């Protein structure tokens, strides 16, 4: 049996008297033939031109899904099923169609016309073409789905690689900062360590003298004098001179050497010795007091070393995805300890107001404070300046503001300050990798925060870091 093309079937149908009696409809390019969702009471047979089938997407946009040409039937499924139109049909060029209503369709399909089989063939061919198109779309969809899955896996791999690179950069920057801080930290630890060493030597001598004398003392006096020595802060030179002058007036019989020793004590200690200790035992009382002073120096030195070690440990904390409650004020205090060898040359003003916790990694956040404060020190240079560190809460966010009264940041540099490999340190012979502020911004954004840099009213640079506050459980 011969197979006809749609064009041949259309030519045969056009010769049929029934078809010739049907009305035609013409459309210009851009005209809508059928609207999606409307009830379709007519079937259109394309004689000339082309139309586009469009389906409304989930966001309301029309998506092109097929194109019909001469011999194709418009609205076949909705017309036969008495349902709403499945697509919107728009003319792509001047289009001429035969318009078939229900009665004319039934007459063509009744078999009374000699060309009824031809009409049936045309309908079957249209349905077959639609089916083939649907199958083709399904194959394309599955192919695109496979490609999207592959691309998603590639993107996931790339993202994991970028996260690993970011962690490596953070670690490199941290090591670079530690290297830069090493000399200062060494100096800061050397001072209390040397003081501790000297104090131990003096303490050995002091105890040998003091033990020989305490036999004539009441134990309560020994304990009290040691506590005075531990708790008293050293008197200034001018204060010692004033104490000596007043003691000479009130106790003119005191020997000059003993007068000097007592003048180094606090007023409370002097009064206790003068009122409770016999004058012949004043020298021994002062020796016991001095033993307490040495213990105080040793205590302060060990505190200083402990604080530096804790600050270093906090700074060196490895980067993880673990979220902890962080009080940024503690991190700022640790950073001040680490940078003390630089910061002690400037006036540091702390306005650390009460703030809620933030969620994040304390070691990474400490790296942020270190980078910014280190930059402030570099900006101030050898000239003594002022650095203000302020914390406060604003609209559910914790704000850390660090500003200085240095030269500020020129506008052309301000635009590039967070760019990778951009640094101004190398211009004056100092060292810088050029990733400090880049890493700073990355860490802040990782913590869902923002950083703003501008010049303050004082003329220096001002960094403002905003981090989401942890909601109170109350």
| Rg from alpha-carbon coordinates | 45 Å
CATH topology of the largest domain: Heat Shock Protein 90
Beta percentage is: 15-25%
Please mark out the parts with pLDDT under 50 across 5 or more consecutive residues, or reply none.
426-434
What's the arrangement of strands in the largest beta sheet? 10-12-13-15-14
Total strands: the figure is: 15
Order of helices and strands: HHEEEEEEHEEHHHHHHHEHHEEHEEHHEE
Number of domains: 3
The residue fraction in helices comes out at 40-55%
Q: Give the distance, in angstroms, between the N- and C-terminal Cα atoms.
A: 85 Å
Secondary-structure arrangement, i.e. CATH architecture of the largest domain: 2-Layer Sandwich
Strand count, sense and closure of the main sheet?
5 strands, mixed
Helix and strand composition category: alpha+beta
Mean pLDDT: 79
CATH superfamily of the largest domain: Histidine kinase-like ATPase, C-terminal domain
By CATH reckoning, the class of the largest domain would read: Alpha Beta
Alpha plus pi helix count = 15
* Silhouette: rod-shaped
């Amino acid at each position: 049996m011969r197979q006809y093309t749609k064009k041949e079937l259309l030519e045969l149908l056009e010769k049929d008297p029934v078809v010739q009696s049907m009305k035609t409809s013409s459309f210009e390019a851009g005209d809508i033939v059928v609207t999606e969702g409307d009830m379709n009471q007519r079937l259109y047979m394309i004689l000339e031109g082309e139309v586009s089938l469009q389906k409304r997407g989930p966001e309301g946009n029309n998506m092109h899904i097929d194109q019909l040409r001469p011999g194709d039937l418009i609205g076949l499924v909705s017309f036969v099923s008495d349902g709403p139109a499945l697509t919107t049909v728009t003319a792509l060029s001047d289009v001429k169609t035969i318009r078939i209503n229900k009665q004319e369709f039934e007459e063509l399909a009744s078999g009374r016309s000699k060309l009824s089989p031809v009409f049936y063939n045309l309908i079957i061919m249209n349905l077959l073409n639609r089916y083939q198109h649907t199958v083709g779309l399904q194959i394309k969809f599955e192919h695109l789905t496979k490609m999207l899955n592959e691309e998603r896996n590639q993107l996931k791999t790339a993202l994991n690689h970028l996260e690993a690179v970011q962690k490596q950069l953070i670690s490199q920057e941290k090591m670079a900062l530690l290297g830069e801080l090493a000399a200062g930290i060494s100096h800061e630890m050397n001072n209390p360590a040397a003081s501790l060493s000297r104090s131990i030597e003096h303490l050995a001598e002091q105890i040998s003298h003091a033990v020989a004398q305490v036999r004539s003392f009441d134990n309560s006096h020994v304990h009290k004098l040691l506590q005075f020595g531990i708790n008293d802060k050293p008197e200034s030179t001018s204060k010692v001179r004033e104490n000596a002058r007043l003691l000479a007036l009130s106790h003119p019989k005191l020997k000059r050497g003993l007068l000097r020793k007592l003048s180094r004590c606090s007023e409370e200690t002097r009064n206790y010795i003068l009122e409770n200790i016999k004058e012949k035992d004043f020298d021994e009382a002062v020796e016991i007091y001095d033993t307490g002073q040495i213990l105080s120096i040793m205590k302060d030195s060990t505190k200083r070393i402990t604080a530096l070690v804790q600050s270093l440990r906090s700074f060196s904390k490895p980067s993880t995805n673990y979220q902890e409650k962080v009080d940024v004020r503690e991190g700022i205090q640790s950073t001040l300890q680490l940078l003390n060898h630089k910061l002690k040359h400037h006036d540091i003003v702390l306005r650390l107001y009460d703030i809620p916790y933030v969620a994040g990694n304390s070691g990474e956040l400490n790296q942020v404070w270190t980078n910014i404060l280190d930059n402030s020190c570099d900006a101030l240079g050898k000239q003594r300046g002022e650095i203000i560190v302020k914390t406060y809460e604003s609209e559910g966010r914790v704000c850390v503001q660090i500003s200085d009264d240095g030269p500020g940041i020129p506008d052309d540099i301000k635009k590039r300050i967070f760019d990778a490999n951009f640094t101004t340190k190398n211009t004056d012979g100092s060292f810088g990798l050029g990733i400090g502020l880049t890493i700073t911004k990355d860490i802040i954004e990782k913590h869902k925060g923002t950083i703003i840099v501008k010049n303050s009213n004082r003329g220096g640079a001002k960094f403002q870091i905003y981090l989401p506050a942890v909601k109170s459980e109350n």
